[in-house]
Fold:
Amino acid sequence: MSPLQVFNTLSGKKEDFTPLTAGTVLMYACGPTVYDLCHLGHARMAIVYDVIQRYLRYSGYKVTFVRNITDIDDKIINRAAEIGLRPEQLARENTYNFWRDMHALNITSPDIEPRATEFIQAMIAFATGLIDSGHAYVSGGDVYFEVATFKQYGKLKKQDLQELVSGAREQVRSQSALKELKRSPLDFALWKSAGSGEIGWESPWGHGRPGWHLECSTMIKNVLGETIDIHGGGEDLVFPHHENEIALSESLHGHPLARYWLHNSFVQIDAEKMSKSLGNFKTIQDLLKTYSADTIRLLLLQTHYRGPIDFTGESLTAAGHGLQRLIRATQAVSSEEAAELIAAATPETSELDFQIMQKFRGEFTAAMDSDFNTASAVAVLFNIADQIFLETKAQTRLSYISALTSIAQTLGLTLEDTSHKVGNDTASGIIELLLEIRASARAKKDFATSDLIRDRLVQLGVKLMDTAGGGTEWEKS
Ligand SMILES: [Zn+2]
Structure:
């Protein structure tokens, strides 16, 4: 196994990575709350944990990667009410949208993807266990976790209980109703009562729904077990979400929830922290209309996952140029030439392949073993590309190319040349333009041109329908 080191938020330093069971990694990352389309922050988190699990598998670990879907939450209920859908309809629609975005970004599917609503009974059992052991209490149909019963509370955020209590007191001063229900402002809901017309489930405490922190704790315990190796998420989840997951799980079973806590930094758009309220909300779908998945991934991987990224049009364009350089490098031997070279392979050429692969894999693993330093790993790719452009022998270029594509794949970069592909918007625009030219040709009685355009479009599967008003409708079959 590799001498991997990871930065553990819990200890605040880099540590040797030693999983609970040698050779296997149990890993969990908090997934999306499906109330809206995914944005760049989701893309970064998904790509970070995608690359981490890809690299762990590449290093020889047997990985079980779990990423949940939060499909019941106040945000979902509120948004659904705003747009006149049932909460489960909105959640289902956005789950599909999320899957489509993940697929488009070349994110490997998790091994297990539990949905919160599939674990309601397990959550009720988890909360009951905490009530029975004196860590939680029922109040007004809700169930709250009593933070004061977990002495290590604050160990992930690195603040002691007293500081946290005074911070929370400020926040809830105006929420007098909650103040009545909770014994301390830090206590948080495991179960919230719901009105009879609202979405909810029957429980020992009446009709209601689970709180978010309980969801993750329960799903980890039921799907992976009491202690996992890696728990990941965005740095905005450290407090209160992950602190609360620790408090719930460790109060229930007394074992560490996770051995290593990894947190990725956020994405800033044009230097302002990305936020819908700032009006710079960019969905993944918006971005993929203009930039390839490889371009977005390359830009994100050029920064270490714990560093913030300034996301600008210029940085995307620069990443696109870098990507083109890597793609051109893979094309430095034509496929015909490559077939001939492979057919003529000798023990010497195999040895050359092996040595080149070893050298660059060595540099790549050194980078990745240092807390998944993808910025240095990407530099290895550009280094190989430089060698390819300098190399005069086709056989050696081919060896470099196989090293380049193999390492790129481990990072989830396809290096596919998509420059000749056009998006649907562009294709529609071109068809509209051709129809305008055809209309103008017909007006001039130039039927040869008009028929040529129609015939060629029909060959491409575009069906034209001349309308009574003299216009033309089209559809792609
Ligand atoms: Zn979570």
